[in-house]
Amino acid sequence: MNDGNKVILLVEDNPDDVALTLRAFKRSHLMNPITVARDGIEALDFMFARGDFADRAALPTIVILDLKLPKLDGLGVLKAMRADPRTQFLPVVILTSSKEEQDLISGYALGANSYVRKPVDFAEFLEAVKVLGIYWLMMNEVPPQGTAP
Amino acid sequence: MKISTKGRLATGIALATIGLIAAVIWWANTEVDDANRQRRQTSEITRALNDLRLVSFEYILHRTERARLQEHEVATRLDRLIADDPFRDPQAIEVLAQLREDVQATHRIFEEFLAGATPGPDPAAGPDATRLFEAQLSSRLLVLQQESLTAALRLADHSTQRIDAAQRRVVVAILLGLALIAVTTAAIGWLIGRHVLRPIARLEQATREVAAGNWNFQVNLSSRDEIGDMARNFDAMTRALREAFAEVQRKNDELAALNKEIEAFSYSVSHDLRAPLRSMDGFSLALIEDYGDKLDADALDSLNRIRAASQRMGRLIDELLGLSRVTRTELVVRSVNLSAIAREIADSLERMHPGRDVRWEISEGMTVQADKSLMHIAMQNLLENAWKFTGKTANAVIRVGIGEANGERHCFVADNGVGFDMSFADRLFGAFQRLHHESEFSGTGIGLAIVQRIFRRHEGRIWVQARPGEGATFFFSFKEPSHE
Fold first, then answer.
1. Among A5, B57, B364, B467, which has the highest number of CB atoms less than 10 A from its own CB?
2. Cα diameter, chain A
3. How distant is the Cα of A130 from the closest Cα of chain B, in angstroms?
4. Model pTM above 0.80
5. ipTM metric
């Protein structure tokens, strides 16, 4: 039932968190290819197929976005995505340590589709990633590629 | 010049004028009195002169003894009348003196008559000579008496003139006085307008401007009077207030900057302090999951302890952030239904811990004026505490209600749990203060610090009564009359 062609873009600068998130996906039996961007600029380069990612195959199906990132922070990435017709409707899940109300509000205001806080307890984190994967990769219907108003 | 000095001056002028008028009236009154007396006496004199003329001629015609006695009586009366010197006016005194001389002359002539009537020293002269002499005498007497009457009439005229003059002077004095009073009154009116009403209007404008928040408004009155002093004091006050407000503003800006820093700090704490904990927990679990079969019980226990410690520190960080958030959030005060909040929290506790049997007694209709989300946090902490510390109590009861003590209304959350010794009560509300071992009752020790901070932010207070083994009651009240 898993569509292996659906690429997940994980925007995360902390290698530990990258490893843990990848582990969580693996343990949740989500076999989708995962591309990791380590800062905001890299993330945008991947999505808009420029720089090192000029030859990337396709847009990711979902972007999992940390807020605190080097160079360009998560909210900046989100803003740039929503301003471009190619990524305007791309589902973005904010996955961050912050529980600050202001971050939540800003995230949703800029068009985030979901906001998940990274729990310290890995078991809880695992559960969260599982639910995320099931919802966004299997149940959610996305608008056709390149559709823009 | 001070306004009070001006006022005294004007009052002085008015009083002096009134005094002057009174003096003139008094003077005129005595003048008229005197003139009247002069007139009365003059008419007495005139009557006496008339009488004298009648009786003296009666004597000259009839030579009766009765007439001579009468003449003597009238002459004595007249002498008495003119002997008095009741006049003050020099003209009247002069006329009176003239009259006196005339009367004396009249008396002398009459004496001569009397001497002639008796057998005279010169009988040789014959009756014709006597008659001629008598005729001459009587004609001189007539002339003198006529002159005396004229003088008396002049005296009468003079007193009438004096009365008239006095009346005229009174009228002139009153008119002049009234004019002076009118001028003074007009001057006072002008002075009040220029030196009192206009500056007061300016001051009034100043108070309005300052009340509207224009701290730069200056009255700038230069007058050296009381209102000038007041204006200068007002300006000084505005300046002082302006400086004080500038100081407050500066302090506020500093505080805002500090708050921003704290926010940035909290943000980075929230992000960066939690990340290593996630790694510790996550990789410990990875070890347990991936290599659990190769590890002995001690190693597994150590890993589990690492996980538990990481999670506990995560909770501590979260609660510390919660504590700082309570201080940072903006207060939105409105009517909050405390009963509903308590009921909601009670239901969720029942759902999360289905094994417990706790009796809830929550009063209906408890309403307070407060920030709803903060009140929810406070009640959550208080009710969770009550729930937690009745965990080992049979027939646990948690009550939420309203009470009154010392005329002050308060709300309370009471339980019949383990309670504590009141000698620890003052430590209760400090951050990280615990009265029980964590092995007995879990918790970070921040909850009540958060609760106290919430009530402080509402300018209210919280206090506690407890006994070991009998439970604890937390009371809280708000500054405003908050219960309806």
1. B57
2. 42
3. 15
4. no
5. 0.75
